[in-house]
Every structure is written in C-alpha cells, then in structure tokens.
C-alpha cells in the first residue's frame, strides 16, 4: 500500500507549504490502491511543441481538463472500444502522482510536492469529442480508458526536465520526446493548479502528449514507457505499460451523444490523410497534402544526404565566397540565395536541403490545405539532424512563414537551419534560439494572410535560386550558396586548396609585395607557391 504523509492532508492552509514529507516507501508496481487514492485526475491539453505544431496553435498558458478517477486503469487492462466507435486514440504521457498536499505553492517549491512519476496512456474516443469539445468529458472520461503504470518512480530522485516518453503500437515506435522540450515544466503545472485548488496526495496530473499520438484498432497492443536518470546516475524506467485494444459489447443508446466524425476529425486523430485512409490530393471532405505523419512508420522518402562528417568539415573550413568561385568555374552562376537577413549574424551552417513550397493565398485552398497537419508542419516534423529547411514563399514578405514553435521543433530535431524568402514571425524568440534562420524580414501576420502551405520536398525557388531536396546548403556572413550534391566533394576539395593558396598570397602581400602578378599568380609566383608547398610537405614527412 502507498503510504502518504498524514500531515500533508491537513485542511485550511492557504499559504505555501513550508515542509514536505514524501511517501515513505516506493511501491514497485502501480496497484489498485494507487487508483483509489486519485481524488482528481487533471490532464494538460497542449504541452509539447511537436504536438502544438501539429495542432497549429501555441498555448500562452497551460490549459487543462478533468477526468474522473474511474477513467484510470492498470497495466494489462483492456482498452474497450464501444460499438459504433471508429477512432480510439492513444497518447503516451508522463503522469505525476502528487505526494504531499499542495496549496498556493511557488514554482520553485512545486516539484517537492510530487511523489511519483509513471507512464500513462491518455486514450480517448474521438467520435464523442464533438459533444464535449474542450472538456473531453465523454471522450476521455470513459471507465478504464486511461491506464497508468506499471511502476512508480520516485520523483525526487529524477530530473523532471530529463525524462523520455515513448509509445509503441504492436512493437513499432510511434512516439518519442523529451520533457526538456515542454512549454510548461512540471513545477509550473503543479504551482499553477495549486493557486486555486488544493492538490491532495494521490491526485494525478497527465502532463500532455508529444507528436505521434494516433489511432489504435482492436487487436493492437499499445505500450508506453517513461525513463530517466536518478541522482546517483542509475537509469530508472517505469517499464512498458501494455494494454490491448478490444471491441466491447457496449451499445451507446440514443438518449445521449452518439458517435459522429468528419474527415477532419479522422486526419486529426490519425495524424495524416494517408494514415486515415483519405486522399492527399484534395479529394474528400477535409483534405491535406503531402507526406505521412511521423506517428505512423512508413517508407522514408526523404532525400539521401551526401554530407558526411568529412565533407562537412571541409565545407565549414571555407567561405561561401570561395565556394561561389568554384561553382562559377564549373558554370554554376545562379547558386546564391539572396536578399535575406539572418537571425544569428555570423553563423556558419552546412547541411542538406529539405524543401517546402507555398502557393499564393486563396480562401478555398487554405480551407482544405492550411489546417491540421499541413505541409508546413509535416516538413518541419520530418527534419533530421543536419537538414536545412528551405521555404519557397515567392519572395512574399507580407506574412510570417516561420514562427517560434516550428523553429523550436526544427531545433529539437537537430536541423541545421531554416531558410525562407518570406517573413519570420516571433523574430525575437526565434533569434534567441540556437538554430540559425534566414528570412526576408520580420512580420507579425499569420501564414494564411498570403500563403497556402502546399508541398514538401519538391524543387523550389528561394531568394532567386533553384533548390532541390538533397542539395548541399552552405551559409555564412557573406551569404548562402546551393551546391548540387554531385559537385559537392570536388567543390569542397578545390575550395580548401584555393583558400590555402590565398592564405599564402595574403602572407606575401603582408610582406610588402605588390598584388600585380601575385593575385592572380603569374608563372613566376606560381612556381614559388608550388615550391613552398613542396617544402612544407617534405617538412611534414620528416
């Protein structure tokens, strides 16, 4: 049995708790008494930037919905889908179990009131969401719809910003994210809730789900795990919370809301038109174009990168001015992305082009292609380490094409940069991030004012340059160049040689020699340079 501090339940204290005692013993497994102790179950609507990017909105403050304690279930319990329901959604989450009474506490002291951490599946019946949108009472409040467990981890031995949550469906990874990315850290959630309500020992907070939440079918086995590192360096894990989806015999009678769905609901639940079995070419009730969501594992159609660590090192060692010369020698005159301003002046980036194309705003097309998990969000969510997302906004500066949430998602995924010839919203927050970005200007307007997100990984135009997926992009304080992948290795090698030669020339100029005949080098100076290089090579071999 889980033992809570009896003193922490004393009533009437509205001031901040000055002393916290935690459960005296860690329960190895989540058992029925854990569920019985949950007076309140509070769930966060949006907390992961990856999920917010899919939903197309960024929360300014946390928002919540209440779930009855009877919605909780144990590891191994069946997730029952009633008759007539099509979409049973599954969401991996970190669950916080309150360990000491919390009323009007500060964020600095809030984490001390959390007793345990475990895994949770905030599953739901999307077909019933229409009737209680926002409150989610029927869709997320069904008996046994939210299993937790299997193991309780001691919260005070964990770094709350270094937990990982993962979800598998039939052994295939569907979700993975870190609590380091949260909009609202756990301590903020506890403190925020405690301002107006008392959190009692045993209460549970479901802290939000990342991108990849999807639909599970009868016969599917859904597994969720939360892991982290203890203060002594030991790895701690909840183990896999495993629950099978089954069809139940429950028939929903007509004296209440009955299942009702649109294609938009299906796309939202599954994560993409393809995953929902809907066309991506504009046909259907609610459409969207492009690649499948990362929530469903499909064939990877992203371009192969030619940028090896060795090639990246070479390209980082030379300037874009030198690369431009080498491209010109090969007949490549139009390889510059021009007219953009950087969020991080002086940044040097090397990476593989991924592309996103916008078309001019048109109300009917934005209605079918602008919402949900649209091309813009799919492009960002599919980025890999070293990718550079290049946006074709037609040079239209009258709205934002990149904002803080999508820039953050690109950074979390390891992208090298984002480049757009349109505007950048949230220019200050984007500039404060580690990931560099280039844009035509800062602009506060939303995307739909001038653009419809249309396609991912097509050939595009950006800043006057043609860019194809897989091209090598190099940017520095002089500008941005686009290198065809077939030329990248030889251009890099010759650029390194050119800069070595130019460094030698600069030394001669510093010695007082005139540039005539030296830059470019005539036969005499060329012979001297080759001799110097030979001598340097011979010295290096001794």
From TrEMBL:
Alphabetical UniProt keywords: Hydrolase, Magnesium, Metal-binding
Pfam families named in the record: FAA_hydrolase, RraA-like
Name assigned to this protein: Fumarylacetoacetate hydrolase family protein
Residues engaged in binding substrate: 403-406, 425
CDD domains: RraA_family
Binding site for Mg(2+): 426
Biased composition (Basic and acidic residues): 12-21
Superkingdom assignment: Bacteria
Species in which this protein is naturally found: Sinomonas puerhi
NCBIfam families xrefs: PRK08245.1 (NF006093), PRK12764.1 (NF009399)
Region annotation (Disordered) ranges: 1-21, 272-305
GO molecular function: hydrolase activity; metal ion binding
Cofactor or coenzyme needed: Mg(2+)
Domain (Fumarylacetoacetase-like C-terminal): residue spans on this chain: 40-229
